[in-house]
Structure formats: C-alpha cells, structure tokens
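Protein in question filed below.

…
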Amino acid sequence: MSKASPETSFATKADVHALRGDVHAVRDDVHALRVEMHGIRDDLRTEMHGIRDELRTEMHGIRDTLLDAMHGLGAQLESMRPIFRATGERESTIEDSLKRRIADGEKRADDRLRDVEAVTKRHPGALAQHGSALASLRTELEGLREAYHVPNSAEVAAFEARLARLEEAVGITRR
C-alpha cells in the first residue's frame, strides 16, 4: 500500500474533535440568538399591545367626549324649547350659552384627537389596526350632529378635517 500524500490525507481524530467543538459552538450561538430574538419579539409584542391599548383609550375618550357633549346639548335644547317659544329676548342669550358649550365640547374632543395624533406620530404603523374605531367615531359624530342639528362651526370643520386625515392614514375612504 502506498502512503497518501499530505494534500489528500484524511483528518485526524483531533481535527474531527475540533470541528465537532466548532459545530457545537455555532449551535450554541444560534440557540443564544434564537433566545435573544424571542426576547425582542416579546418586547415588541408588549410595546405594540401598550400602543394599541393607549390608542383604544384615546379613541374611546374622543367618542365619550363627543357623546357627552352632544347628549348634553340635545337634552338642553329639548328643555329650552318652551323658553325659545315664550321669549324672544332670552333666545339669543340661551343660544350664546349653547354656542359656548358646543365650543367647550369641541375643544375637549379636539384635545383628545390631538393626543391620538401625537401617539400616531410616535408609532405610525400602530393606528392601522384601529381603523374600525375611527370609522365608528365618524359614524357616531355624524349621527349625533344630525340628531341634534349641531351647527357646522369652524371648530367642528377643523376637527372633522383632522379626523379625516387620521382616517386617510389608516386607509378609510369617505364617500
């Protein structure tokens, strides 16, 4: 039998053990990376759930603010109808009071919307999953305005424009 040349010689047991050690080291590194990736995934999931909850809270706050303002105005209008009929003088005073209350309600809703916009600027992708909340907010706003005949002031128009921008950001198209 002839001896193999060094270029074609087989690996020694020491070489095999060294390679096996390298394979085990790589496997351990892959496992460590997998554990790290799972940690990152869990952190991202926790953060996204926090963002979702924050946005949900803000949307519910906007809706509740609008509902409170509109229901309050509707009840006031109903209770004041006899006054409107009985006195022509006080009607303008009552209207001024109502306009102030409408403006206050619009400001509260506007503040809530501003908070939501701030959250969406920090986390632009997070709002996409809350499009249905925006759609229901829009529906409620339009329904309440129609039911209580709320005048379309500049503040209401500005609020609706900002709501429309948020709707557009999540892909809601209006007819």
Q: What stands out?
A: The chain has a mean pLDDT of 71. The helical segments are 13-86, 89-122, 131-148, 154-169. Residues 36-169 form one domain. Residues 154 and 160 are 10 Å apart (CA to CA).
